[in-house]
């Protein structure tokens, strides 16, 4: 992975100069047409639309070339959008070199960069980018930084690294942010550490629907359907209205364990599943 931003993060990386040749600019079979716009705003809007819908590396590079000729990467976060597009298409080197070219990398830029790696399950580069952000800039992490890091840990079952990030979260007082607490519950639960997931859940002052869905799901998915149903019943007593995800998971718990099915009484099923038919394929029944 060739990107200067990772040098101070302890990575031994070879510097690679990024150059888009005229040949690459002409290589796209269907290059975006970005001429004929009457003002800058409409041109920027067209470029962003082209980048976000880009489905091939040749098109992405073609857009990159045209931006270099006609616009600034800071216009409408076009540079950030190009970085995300390269990562989405799986071209990490292009993404890193594009990120190096960005003139003013702010927190939005870093978060977008980390999120792009996270969506690909690339925990190593998520951590590299996070370390570079801390070492090379004065930018402080926020929810948009932490959530993709934890999500990458969950995807790769890297509980040890996730625990380290949890420590960072505690140090900077970020655990009170509900979205962060929810992804930590999901990480600990899916890694099989249900005590950690339950402890985090119980520490949330007012859990939201996502919190309840997470704690129910991790228990059901790790073979604890009775406990999952118990949390579901608690959520109903707390006045939480279930959504499709809640009820599908609860029905799975009932399918797994007859005692769990008894816990969810006929009356409760009727009350919870009223007018519920996900995709018209499944009905709640007593």
Strand content: under 5%
Termini gap:
56 Å
Unreliably modeled segments: 7-34, 275-286
Sheet with the most strands, sense and barrel status: none
The whole-number mean of residue pLDDT values reads 78
Count, helices: 16
Helix/strand-derived category reads mainly alpha
Order of helices and strands: HHHHHHHHHHHHHHHH
Question: Can you give keywords for this protein?
Answer:
mainly alpha; 63% helix; 16 helices; elongated; disordered C terminus; RNA binding; 286 residues; repeat
Characterise this structure:
Keywords: Repeat. PPR repeats lie at residues 208-242. This protein is an all-alpha fold. Among the domains are: 16-102, no CATH class; 207-286, no CATH class. 63% of the residues lie in helices and 0% in strands. It has 16 helices and no strands. The chain has helices at 22-25, 40-52, 57-70, 78-88, 92-101, 107-119, 123-136, 143-156, 159-171, 178-190, 194-203, 209-221, 225-237, 244-256, 258-263, 266-272. Helix 10 (178-190) packs parallel to helix 12 (209-221). It is elongated. The N and C termini lie far apart (56 Å).
